[in-house]
Amino acid sequence: MTALLSVLTSGAFGSALGSLFQWLNRKTEIAAKKMEYDHAEKMADLQNQQALALADKAKEQVVAAGEQAVAKVEASAFVESQKAPLTPLSDTLKSWMRASITAYLLVLGTYLAWNIGRLVGGLESLDTAILIPIYTDIIAQVFFLVNLTVSWFFGARGTASSKRKP
Description:
It is a single chain. Helices cover about 85% and strands about 0% of the residues. By secondary structure, the protein is mainly alpha-helical. It has one domain (about 1-165).
């Protein structure tokens, strides 16, 4: 059990977990960009079809057919644009996980420190042999959380090229 906790609270596991959430965020961004590009492609195809129809038919027929086609494609494109991203799990986790981890750790750490300090009469009353493993565990857990939050933050914020509009 101690070995499992040691692995789960290690900095490497924190980085790996942060990278996993970053990958899920990136996957959602890619799916959203694909939907944007597909919509733009459909609109360009519609415009090309309308131009060909104008060359072949009389102006009145083309205008009526073009307006109907545009309305139809815009309606289907609107329906497509309203669909949810492919992986809402990563968005949901990202939106509440960082704040939850921080709040949980602040409350738990304060509660434990206050009560333990009160019960044992402060750190002066504990033997050094007891304090060293506690100190080691605290440092390992802090590094785990630092690695998790830093790798997740830098992975979730994206690059300058991913923020540019096409």
